[in-house]
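Field reference: sequence -> structure
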Amino acid sequence: MLILLAFIIVFHITSAALLFISTIDNAWWVGKDFSTDVWKVCINITNCTVIDENNSEYQSVQAIQATMILSTILCCVAFLVFILQLFRLKQGERFVLTSTIQLLSCLCVMIAASIYTNRHEDLHRSNGYNFEVLSGQYGYSFILAWIAFAFTLISGVMYLVLRKRK
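Structure field:
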């Protein structure tokens, strides 16, 4: 039981780390001399411009930002709730509250990654870049967001199935 508990905790912390990295790091769309994310656009890593309301796709960017932040917060809250439920639940009960919060985190990261997948071409066209952004490809932060989706989904289902034992 202790090994299972350690695995669940490590899995959850890994999910949270993936969410933090994918939310913060500047590599959702990368090219030869540029990288973009949901916060800024960088040319040659040194010349960075924040995405602001002058961008015609700013509402999409804000939706992505909000759902990624919410996903990260929900994942951290789910971990705290899990720790509390370890001490408060009676033997044989399920971790339903933890599972619900983790599945909401999963839903938020899926929404953010789906919006970016759908709107990335319009987003990169709308900013009036003086370089060819569309020649890039999805970066590792975007891929980590989808991996975090899978991890939070798996851990949410794991908490739903898991029962507290002695």
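Note: The chain is about 65% helix and 10% strand.
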